[in-house]
Specification:
Layout (H helix, E strand, L loop, with lengths): L8 H16 L1 H14 L1 H6 E7 L2 E6 L1 H9 L1 H12 L6 E6 L19 H8 L4 H16 L3
Parallel strand pairs: 2-3
Antiparallel strand pairs: 1-2
Helix pairs in contact: 1-2, 2-5, 6-7
C-alpha cells in the first residue's frame, strides 16, 4: 500500500479487531486474524479456524480436506504454535463445512482514453509526479461514467 492510498476494508479488519479479541482469547484472536499468513494461502483456502478451546483448534473444511490436514497435523500444529510463540494448539478437530472463500474480485477494465479537455488540462500541470497522480485520478473518475 502506498502512503495515503486506499486500502481494502478486509485488510483493516484484523488490525481493528485484534485488541477486542485479545481480551477473550489472545491465541484465538491471533489465529483468526493471521490465518492466511500462519498456514499459507493454499491451506487457508481449504480450511478456516472456528475456535480454539483447551488446546484443540477446530477447523471448518470439507471431508477430503480434513483427511489431508489430519495427515499433516503435526507440521500444521508446529507452524501455528511457532507463529504464536508458545504451545497453544495440541491437536486439531474438524467440522465438515466448506470454508468461506472470498469471492474473486472482477478485474478492472483497462482505463480508457480521457476526454481531450482533461488531457489538455493535465498537460499544463507542473511536476511529473503530480501530473501522473491527477491522471490516475481522472482515469478512475471517467472509468465509472458510461
Amino acid at each position: 500500500m502506498s502512503r495515503g492510498g486506499l486500502q481494502e476494508l478486509g485488510a483493516l479488519v484484523p488490525r481493528l479487531t485484534r485488541p477486542a479479541f485479545r481480551k477473550r482469547s489472545p491465541d484465538a484472536a491471533q489465529i483468526l486474524a493471521d490465518w492466511p499468513q500462519v498456514v499459507g494461502p493454499e491451506i487457508a483456502r481449504m480450511a478456516e479456524p472456528v475456535r480454539i478451546s483447551a488446546g484443540t483448534l477446530t477447523l471448518a473444511c470439507t471431508g477430503p480436506a480434513a483427511m489431508e490436514l489430519g495427515m499433516g497435523a503435526p507440521a500444521l500444529i508446529q507452524r501455528i504454535n511457532a507463529h504464536l510463540g508458545r504451545i497453544a494448539v495440541r491437536k486439531l478437530a474438524f467440522v465438515q463445512r466448506a470454508p468461506r472463500v472470498e469471492a474473486a474480485r472482477p478485474k478492472r477494465p483497462p482505463p480508457g482514453p480521457l476526454p481531450p479537455r482533461v488531457e489538455k488540462s493535465l498537460d499544463a500541470v507542473p511536476g511529473e509526479e503530480l501530473r501522473m497522480a491527477l491522471e490516475r485520478l481522472a482515469q478512475g473518475v471517467f472509468a465509472r461514467k458510461p
